[in-house]
Design a protein that fits this description.
Mean pLDDT: 88
Shape: globular
Largest sheet: 8 strands, mixed
Order of helices and strands: HHEHHEEHHHEHEHEEHEHEEEH
CATH topology of the largest domain: Rossmann fold
Bound molecules: S-adenosylmethionine
Structural class: alpha/beta
Strand content: 15-25%
Number of domains: 2
CATH class of the largest domain: Alpha Beta
CATH superfamily of the largest domain: Vaccinia Virus protein VP39
Oligomer: single chain
Distance between the termini: 35 Å
């Protein structure tokens, strides 16, 4: 940060309403409507403060349908500065305590609408779940494919309820989930309200056209999303584009199956994917494809049970003169 930016950030914080906004946004993503409710100030007034805070690099804004969500800037020096200064703020300060109480009420109402959404879809999801290996085992397998080192930036495509972010948040310095469904993002927002997820952000965006620069993530993950996409190969190309050299792509979906097992109303566009197909897409996108992991359903499950597959790829590092022999082997254990 140069002197100018530093001073601009300090000036941004040096006003009571703005400090209250920053303190709230360090805890949760909020829309302007949420902030009007918490602070009891007019929307135009708060919007002016928010603009100033964004211009000072303290906040990030993410448009989502009719709403715009704000959060403390995660990758920016000004965001770190704000977090550092907030640590000196007395938690029991009466103004802050009241703001937090009102924030908690908003978080509770998010959780209630998430619950309602779940109840509407629970039967359909339970039906699919009953056809494959328990989710906990799939999640353990995903965890094993994450790099052993701490991940800098992680992206979850089609984050849905934010489950993958919850699973991987502790392994990453910054995690972003994207999804096209506003309802799902609302559920994810409720699930990610909490101190363990302050470095997680949510964006409404299509997996086929990511709003991120080339080479901006170390891990891109997608769990049970490919089969919904009209053009899954395009999503793989986009994922590869935003990966840094030696960055890792992890895709989880079903092996080819008889689509009728899911019933007539399921929204899956694809009845699973073969290893050749997914690894071919990865190679076309410039990735080195690793050995897929197969998680068949337990034999106790009914006929038509589904096999869960995990595919992984790595973006080669152009500074490496040659791929070491053990990594050119298609069966090699990638990256560990
Ligand atoms: C079965 S859910 C999986 C959610 C999450 N990955 C998980 O494992 O819990 C599929 C998600 O993909 C999202 N989705 C579907 N098409 C998408 C697209 N083109 N771009 C981004 N997300 C999409 C849906 O909104 C939904 O939230």
């Amino acid at each position: 940060m140069n002197y100018g930016n530093f001073l601009e950030a300090l000036r941004g914080l040096a006003e009571e309403t703005r400090l209250r906004l920053v303190a709230l946004l360090a805890e949760s993503e909020l829309s302007v409507t949420d902030m009007v409710e918490i602070l009891g100030q007019s929307q135009p007034r708060l919007s002016r403060h928010l603009k100033l805070l964004c211009d000072a690099g303290l906040l990030e804004r993410a448009p989502e349908g009719v709403h715009v969500y704000f959060r403390l800037a995660s990758g920016e020096a000004a965001g770190h500065l704000a977090r550092g200064l907030l640590a000196f703020l007395d938690k029991d300060d009466p103004v802050r305590a009241l703001d937090r109480q009102r924030l908690a009420a908003i978080q509770r109402s998010r959780a209630v609408s998430a619950e309602t959404y779940f109840q509407r879809h629970a039967a359909e999801w339970d039906a699919i779940r009953s056809l494959h290996i328990p989710e906990a085992e799939v999640e353990r397998a995903i965890h094993r494919l994450l790099p052993r080192r701490k991940v800098g930036d992680l992206l979850d495509l089609g984050t849905g309820t934010g489950r993958m972010l919850q699973l991987c948040a502790a392994s990453a310095e910054r995690a972003v989930g994207i999804d096209m469904s506003r309802e799902m993002l609302a559920v994810a927002r409720a699930n990610l309200d909490g101190p363990d997820y302050r470095h997680c952000a949510l964006r409404r965006a299509p997996a086929e056209k990511l709003p991120f620069a080339n080479a901006s993530f170390d891990v891109v993950l997608s769990h049970m999303v490919l089969h919904f996409l009209s053009d899954p190969e395009l999503a793989v190309q986009e994922a590869a584009r935003v990966l840094r050299p030696r960055g890792r792509l992890i895709l989880v979906d079903f092996a080819p199956h008889d689509a009728t097992v899911l019933g007539p109303d399921h929204a899956h566009r694809w009845a699973g994917f073969s290893d050749e197909t997914v690894n071919g897409w990865m190679r076309e996108a410039g990735l080195v494809a690793g050995r897929p992991v197969s998680l068949p359903a337990p034999s106790s499950l009914s006929e038509g049970a589904l096999t869960v597959k995990l595919w992984r790829g790595e973006r080669p590092d152009p500074t490496e003169a040659h791929i070491p022999a053990h990594r050119a082997d298609p069966n090699f254990e990638l990256f560990q």
